[in-house]
Amino acid sequence: xxxxxxxxxxxxxxxxxxxVIIEFSDxxxxxxxxxxxxxxxxxxxxxxxxxxxDVLSMCQGQKTTLSEVGDLNRRLGIVYAEAINEAIKxxxxxxxxxxxxxxxxxxxxxxxxxxxxxxxxxxxxxxxxNDGFTIQLGDCNRIATLTGITTIGDFRNRDISYxxxxxxxxxxxxxxxxxxxKETRIILNIGGISNITLLPSNxxxxxxxxxxxxxxxxxxxxxxxxxxxxxYDKDGEWANQGKINELLLKSLYDYSSSFLNKLPPxxxxxxxxxxxxLLNVIESIKDNEKVRDxxxxxxxLEFTCRTIVDEIIRIKNCKIDRVLVCGGGCKxxxxxxxxxxxxxxxDDSCKVSTTDEFGIxxxxxxxxxxxxxxxxxxxxxxSNLISVTGASKETILGAIYLKNNFEN
Length: 408
Known about the structure:
This protein has 14 helices and 13 strands. By secondary structure, the chain is α/β, with parallel strands linked by helices. The strands form 3 sheets. It has a 6-stranded mixed sheet with strand order 3-2-1-4-7-13. Strand 8 (185-190) and strand 9 (193-199) form a beta hairpin. Helix 7 (217-226) runs antiparallel to helix 11, helix 8 (246-255) packs across helix 10 (275-285) and helix 8 packs across helix 11. The longest helix has 26 residues, at 66-91. It holds the Pfam family AnmK. One of its GO terms (biological process) is amino sugar metabolic process. This is Anhydro-N-acetylmuramic acid kinase.
């Protein structure tokens, strides 16, 4: 019998709360032929509309008060706990057997350090000067109280305190679960934001990972604005009705060049790629050209796919054998088809599929990762990779909110 943990994730897409209950094998972590992850339960809980609205308002820099921030933190903690308790109920697992919950929380602001690299000899001084921070809401005190289970949250800020980007964190889990000595892989996560992890087949080249730009975030925001709140463009059907507008595509690149042209490590979020940013880009070209709504959607899909492939093409130190896609974006057939075409144009021997093919549910990837981070933290093990985030030191991540012994 392995150890049981829960992972909870709600990303920038705000499309729901993903909860997984995981049994981790205690067998050899270095043997890639052993299945180390057993998903006991997977559950998706809808995000309440009022919470979604308040998160979006906060993410886009709207004026808010400390009272509003605190109340949103409280409400998110409660809805996370509801989702967790429902998943436990569905699984019939004894809550007393669950060692901890790893909860990412809901990002409302992510500001990586202006200067990323620190030196090991000046960690304290550099940390004092470090202007980076990240805010994920969802009160872990409430979660621990309402579930009776030790809860771990705030995973990103410790990496930032060492000069790192605080994101992406999942590459260390990708290394644990999907690396291979037989082929070099890229794990591509298309959530609200897209990020890639390079998993070389040898130990000479380090694992790297970074955000590439938008995933579903602009596509979802645009269709929600123009199609009466329709949550997403299923299979890219609306985008498929439009035509790519080259002037708009160029403007999307121009308006995000400060991020796109930056070398890794790098991370981004809704603080850059949001609906107001998109409206500003469209406004900038309206005197030259009128763009139909479906053409905007088609162009956004092209922008998303091209910015991903642009970053893959930049990788020159090894040949990519396979790209494994996960996250909500891999359910969009048009995105998957376009990515496959662009990657085949680059290297027709590169295989493209989803992580499901290798035993990791593509929709549960990030939630599983945070269950694993909770396990690492509880066992005093580090979880960040300095080759990914740019931190000066590998460190234990997260803050632990212990259950009371009388609760359960």
